[in-house]
Amino acid sequence: MINYVSDRFFVNVPAIRTSDRRGNMSVPKILSAADQEQPVAVIHHLAPKHAGFDDAAHAASADPGLDRAMSMFGAIADQISQTYQDLSGRVNRLANELDSVSLNRQREHEDKARIANRLKTLLQALPVGIVVLDARGSVQECNPAAVDLLGEPLHGERWVEIIQRCFAPKADDGHEVSLKDGRRLSIQTCSLENAPGQLIVLSDLTETRELQSRLSRSERLSSMGRMVASLAHQIRTPLSAAMLYAGHLSQPELDGSLRVKCAQKLMSRLTHLEQQVRDMLIFAKGDAPLAQRIACAELFTEIQAAAEPEAQRKQVPVQWSIDCGEREILCNKDALVGAVLNLFNNALEAVKGADQPQVEVILSAPGQGFICLEVRDNGVGFEPEDGPRLLEAFYTTKSHGTGLGLAVAQGVAQAHHGRFFITSGGPGLGARAILTLPARHSA
């Protein structure tokens, strides 16, 4: 240690640099008159503190070169002191920031732990089965509902093995899958985000399907009550007329022209009766199996052949138009032809009082994957807001009829995975009945 003295302070300059407890470099300290150490700020006229050298020190202070050296040394000492203070402040700030970051990370970790526990509790309480598969298709995680549906063991078991052990698909499963114990499951899958594997959600729809079946059966029984009452009335009227005409035909004195007229009336009533019975059967079944794949042009020809005799009898001009290309449709031909005949007969009755009655039947393919079969007329029409009600079973605006024609058309369209709707611009502006059905290009 070398001691120097200036005008006002003693300076202790260490012979070697040391570091404090934080690893910071130490700097020269000064002793004030109160013998307290302070960092060096500015040092003036340093000289060795020795009794025999005081005069030499004062003499040397008059040297300009030495003054400049002392000034430079003082400036360097000031810079060192300022740098130390800056570094100390920066270290303190970094330490505070590190403490803050550590605290935030600890809070985030605690929050994530709480969320994980909450999700785990939710997963355990879910009524649907949850199965997580890894990249190899093995069960990595599952909840109690999945174990209840699929049995044990599940952890580590391959999904392919679970399918063979638990599932027994049936022909009528559709979008659901049957288990070997008879329960029906809905299965949904999705990929895991940012990780290989899949998430499988299993929903037990057994009770839901049973409740839906009971509800459908109750609704059908309710409808059957109204249908029986309507059937008794609607069958009695044409049947009574048919019996009357048949009675006339049995009279031997009836001349030839009246006999032909009675025979025509009898056939008309029997045809009407047959149509009502057919509509009732289609509505009662509620479904139509799709077992025939035919060309759309062939279907259109059969509809035209079945509809033309009635149009000619009522002397109503009909315009037939087809533009659907080489497409074919999977259908129940009898049900579909019967539904279109209902629409056609409605159009014939709607134009009965028109000055220039006109009916159009159009088959087109306005888009990919479907065809549009439309029946237009310029008859009585209806209020646009009455359209939805006209599709209700047993609702009719006619003095005769079952009110099933449009309901049957809607049911047949749904059975063919299509749509049916009717529109009108208002009373006296005619109506349009439109069937849209899925179709494809012929192979």
Automatic annotation (TrEMBL):
Residues 115-151 form the PAS domain. Its EC number is 2.7.13.3. It catalyses: ATP + protein L-histidine = ADP + protein N-phospho-L-histidine. It holds the Pfam family HATPase_c. Residues 230-441 form the Histidine kinase domain. Residues 77-104 form a coiled coil. It comes from the Bacteria. The keyword Cell cycle does not apply. It is an enzyme of class 2 (transferase). The keyword Signal does not apply. This is histidine kinase. SUPFAM superfamilies: ATPase domain of HSP90 chaperone/DNA topoisomerase II/histidine kinase, Homodimeric domain of signal transducing histidine kinase, PYP-like sensor domain (PAS domain). It comes from Hahella chejuensis (strain KCTC 2396).
